[in-house]
Amino acid sequence: MSHATSTTPARDFTLYGETFSSRFLLGTALYSSPQLMRDSITQSRCEIVTLGLRRQNPANRDGDAIWQYIQESGCRLLPNTAGCKSVKEAVTLAEMSREIFNTDWIKLEVVGDDYNLQPDPFGLVEASDILIKKGFKVLPYCTDDLILCKRLLDVGCEVLMPWGAPIGTGQGLLNRYSLRSLRERIKDVPMIIDAGLGAPSQAAEAMEMGFDGILLNTAVAKAHNPPLMAEAFADAIDAGRKAFKAGLMQKRQTANPSTPTVGQPFWHQQ
Amino acid sequence: MNTQTNPQQIAIAGAGLLGRLLAWRLRLLGHDITLFDAGKLQPAGNAVRAAAFTAAGMIAPLSEAVVSDANVYRMGQFALQRWPEWLKDLPHSETELFFAKGSLLVAHPQDESELQQFESELNFVVPECRNYQHLSNRDIRDLEPDLSPQFMRGLLLQEEGHLHNREFLQRLGDELIRQGVLIREDTPVETAPQTIHTGTGVEKFDLVIDCRGLGATTQLKKLRGVRGETLHVETSEIHLQRPVRLMHPRYQLYVVPKPNNRFIIGATQIESEDRSPVTLQSSLELGSALYTLSPAFAEARIIEMDTNLRPAFMDNLPKIFCKPGLIVANGLFRHGYLLAPAVVEQVLARVAQNPHILFPDLLQASVSG
Hints:
Chain A is α/β, with parallel strands linked by helices and 270 residues long. Chain A has helices at residues 34-44, 64-71, 87-101, 121-133, 146-154, 176-185, 200-208, 218-221, 226-246, and strands spanning 13-15, 18-20, 24-27, 48-52, 76-80, 105-108, 137-142, 161-162, 192-194, 213-216.
């Protein structure tokens, strides 16, 4: 048995045929300045960043100044359809994003509820189907519902991005049972926990459960010190991944001493 | 007028907030001022005009420090002292322009965690700040009886104020003419040390001060515009003493009382250089925030919808670049009335060749942006 202890993470995270060494995807919204956003990207060590253009009048390319600045980070861009409430809006925005950023990757969001931004599962499957037929590589932001995830795979998604909790809540993994069973039932497809995480410990827990990556935004952008929080998440994600690969011990019902208590008379040992 | 021992011929490019303030203060010191602007000194509502006309005129060092840093707080405190002093130099008028009555923060009962988040950020950014107060439902009603009774908790930020900014800009424009500042309207320019390039020729000055805001993007590469949208409404059913900010998980909107029963509700903040009219989405957000603050706003009349771009550098903080014969000041972002006094005083110190540096973070080594 080999005990790999290399400090550089393996380049073994594959999404649509491309490999990455970082399993952390970071959002670019909500920072108090673009510079703070870029500093956070650097500290996060991430290789993929998401960006939304719904409200920036993309048809006119009015967001060019900030898009260029994000592109200068050197990360792969993953445009998203945040804010789209219908299939048609999402498809139109995905096509615009493909043209502007010259990428067929799209983080697909179809908002079903305005207050908590919960995904609309029906619209999501329909939009995924349309976009995949148009040649897109779709990374869908979905709930942890097994049947929804299966339908997304049926229409050709090769990555799933179930939520931990609703966007921006920082609640962590609200439904461990369904996330765990999702992971057990869908073993061979990369799954990224997207949204709802507030603390690095929650990201580590998701990685320990065997999820392949973490996507978040608010937890870093709304920290008092976003670059430092980005680094904390990066470390937690690395630790969680290592723990998953190393294999967690099974929990036991009683507290067992890990070394035999040799000095104690056997009739005192239970 | 104070007389300067060696009055200089100074050209100022841009008659927005910084340009006007600098023209005024430098003229009072005895310099000869020529103020250039690509548009009019009193622009029409539909013209491309300075961000200062669209701003709501809040002077909110605490609220703004939370979304930027402690320097903004320090410069904002300076502004709260400087504004009333400066305004004494304007001819007397019946309409008061500046108010130091604090500002109020409230949140929907289900979004009260936003108040806690704000307080936690405030304590992190400005740990020494004690000038705020927790409010109960009763306190809120005592302070602003016309607000909706649904707000159970709030914060009163004592150390904040607001300014009737459009009235101020107009009165300052009139004062510049009265003081003999030479106004060159409809004259877009480019700047260089001691030099103004107009479309028709080159003019020489002792000193050029460039505060063109987004007009300077050809020379300041990292300057960008950030879209903001506001609604102006009019109603006699509601009276507010001070700005009120509604905290929400995805946006913060404020309403600021203005003369003649008017209110500004603003402002969206969108990373886009789009100057087109207000979107329906934004108008819904702005309108519903207003309605949340008080249902009596339902019958207010919408008298204006305004869109503009805030000039900003990538750290969203203002900068001053100096070289012999040229000073460039830009990037006030969403903090125009809050940070202009600090920027203006720092520029004045430079013009007077006063080595004292008031705000070291404002001064930049090179004109790269």
